[in-house]
Amino acid sequence: MDFETHDYDVLVIGAGGAGLRAAIEASAAGVQVGLICKSLLGKAHTVMAEGGVAAALANVDDRDSWKVHFADTMRGGQYVNNWRMAELHAKEAPDRVRELEAWGAVFDRTADGRILQRNFGGHRYPRLAHVGDRTGLELIRTLQDEGVHRGIDVHMEFTVVSLLATDGRASGVVGYERERGRFKVFGASAVILATGGAGRAYKITSNSWEGTGDGHSLAYHAGAELLDMEFIQFHPTGMIWPPSVQGILVTEGVRGEGGILLNRDGRRFMFDDIPDAYRKQTADNEDEGWRYTQGDKNARRPPELLTRDHVARCIMREVRDGRGSPHGGVFLDIAWIKKRLANGEEHIRRKLPSMYHQFKELADIDITKEPMEVGPTTHYIMGGVRVDGDTQMSSVQGLFAAGECAAGINGANRLGGNSLSDLLVFGKRAGEHAAAFAREHRRVSIDTAAARAAADRALKPFEAGPGGGENPYAIQSALQEMMQALVGIVRNEDDMQRALQGLTALRTRVERAVVTGHREYNPGWHTSIDLGHLLTVSEAITRSAIERKESRGGHFREDFPEKDPRFAMFNVVTAKASDGSMQVRRVPLPAMPAELKQIIEDQK
Amino acid sequence: MSDHITLHVARYRPEKASETTFDAFELPCPKEWVVLDGLNHIKDRMDGTLSYRWSCRMGICGSCGMLVNGEPKLACATFLSDYAPGPVRVEPLRNFPVIRDLVVEMGDFMSKLTRIKPWIVRQVEKPLSDGEYRQTPGELDEYKQFSMCINCMLCYSACPIYGLDPHFIGPAAIALAQRYNLDSRDEGAAERMQILSEHDGIWGCTFVGECTKVCPKHVDPAGAIQRYKLQSAVEWVKAFVLPRAAQ
Asked: How many CA atoms lie within 13 A of A396 on its CB side?
């Protein structure tokens, strides 16, 4: 097999927010940049982000500062975050937002023309710059246009099957273009992974079909380490009915605008369980909570705006104890604000236009009149490629990662809005440092034998004899059912050991997967390739979750339901051993500098 | 209502046949299923080779545009039960070359979007430390509607002019130009006007209005085109009537 080859100084895999921001920065540094995306440009998962981008601009409340944002992020992540990343993120997010604005991004505005900011869970002050509830779309559009403007080379509908590395240095990738099914090799001095998440390992997820953990898996197999893969964010409010839209996100912005959570009996159950770490900042009555959502600076936030991990668990408890809604969730009510606001209906439609249409069009529900039914949905993975906080380089030289597929900034739980700012801040850093790396290091040659072997492996499902194999969709849905049931929101040792056995069995089934038809635009074939990534990621999640014998953030174990201070001292690192097996180990957290510790103390 | 519905899905497999054919699939039809659920059902359980684009399932990425009974629609926001008892015809978007089954070639569309310079044009950039460029809520309202476009291409598929003359720059590109022209932070209106006033620009449009009807985001490209024509005509008249200094 001869490959068509392309060579770049910096190759970016993934064209969501992080990938585009990285490509723009590398291009601005004057190196040759190639950008590969799994789907079409501009359709990446980032478009689905609704609420906004978190940055301490202090436009709405001048008490906000990077220090408060830093402390909020660390508290939300339960202090196992990479403190350096949390620090850089809080300090640099405001400039990244202003830069995006200067490139033309649309933002809602204050009366005097500054960027408007809204409340969100876990953020002490109104901090989310936004445009209605379609901030992700606007962010992607702006970056896409800026990228096109700069003349970045884009390869669309291209799937990477293997990341090539020679002697611990990234050298490029091999993959195929969907349209013709032809394999191509991309050589590069530096490779940036910006592939997003892995929600498709679960049955109920807000992620689109592309979210199969490709970057996590590619990095792992190329020798990079993964960090804290046990931390998955189950967003508390996904649509649960009708079944065809199960998992689709209902923005936290609904709660930010005053939406409340009710159980079957109409009880506002979030007041029943407020964690000690947040008690001082949380309203203890409904009236104060409402005033907070309406901008009263002396009021404390309502309990609906506690962190996502906590709200998701409270919802699960209501459902488990028989107080759930008819379809197994709880009620999210925004219509009630009509009691407080004369123009309530119009207010809802103006502040939450996408939500209004989403429920009207997909569920035939008018949210200005009726409550929504919601329940937790797999939304985000805090774990990912272990990177250096300043440069975003992984343990493989020349391999960088940014955005959701990288780990560190979010610790055990991500705050809403910190994802869009993460991808701007660290996308830029990855682009900058990858370009510098590319200038300083000569390209290493591609191991064509390895590229050929990877392509052969990818083509294997075509070779199975007729009737001899299994439909890859059936295997994928078995995997999703299993991860949902055994390594989901509530975990325990026995379930997860069964999941490990289940993964071994699924791996055997994948070996026998068979696809029909030709290579051109064959979705069955694509699924067989996604499956490989999903299995790697699922195993990493499960092994890491077994290793962390406590409950923290997105990781909840009913056999160890409490936080354990001994587990606050380390991260869980996953790597491939020399015999090819997956190994997890505990790596102590680096000591935090005194001045950062002081900031956290001051903000308690 | 029957609990099943038949989908007639266009199949184009150039390696097999040069013509489009239709495959019939009988599907369950729960009332909450959208066309995309039907297609996913076919792909996952009946025919793993069926090709189409989709992503978000929530009408925001604009990937799943296709013709449903001849009308351009987003498959994720079109209920199958609205077409009961069926059958329902599903075809690739009109006015685009087909690559395979329901997947169309969109290179022309992408290049048209970039032709109108969809970025802020500004003579002097100020440093980030000076803060954001101010824009009042009123100024924002001027163009916000035109910024809602999700590049789903339904308007190109509905546009009879684009169907006849592929050089026509098309509804979404003109709406996008208007989104930047009306943005108080932008100084590029004159440059864009030049591009749009060329032969294949706005003057191609005979104001059929189909683009606005099919737009899932209520962007109103037809309105943008109308406004543009008026503005362009005024500029043209001004060039003759007024002395240069007053233009």
From this structure: 30
What is the rounded distance in angstroms from the CA atom of residue A214 to the CA atom of residue A240? 27
Distance of CA B193 to the CA centre of its chain: 21
pLDDT for B244 beyond 80 = no
**What's the CATH number where A339 sits?**
3.90.700.10
Comparing CB atoms, the residue among A148, A357, A473 nearest residue B114 is A148
For residue A98, which residues of chain B lie inside 8 Å, CB to CB?
Answer: 128, 131-132
A279 is catalytic: no
User: Mind telling me how many Å the CA of B185 is from chain A's nearest CA?
Assistant: 8
Range of the domain at A263: 238-378
- pLDDT tens track for A313-367: 999 999 989 999 999 899 999 999 999 999 999 999 988 888 898 888 778 899 9
Average pLDDT, chain B: 90
A32 falls within a domain: no
The pTM of this model reads: 0.94
| B196 min Cα distance to partner chain A (Å) | 18
- Residue position matching structure tokens 């009630």: A336
Structural domains of chain B, with CATH: 4-104 (3.10.20.30), 107-246 (1.10.1060.10)
Residue B54: its chain A contacts at CB < 8 A?
208-209
Look at A45 and B77 and tell me if their CB atoms are within 8 Å. no
| Tokens found for residue A371 | 């409550």
What is the value of ipTM here, to two decimals? 0.92
CA A78 to chain centre: 17
What total number of domains does chain A contain? 2
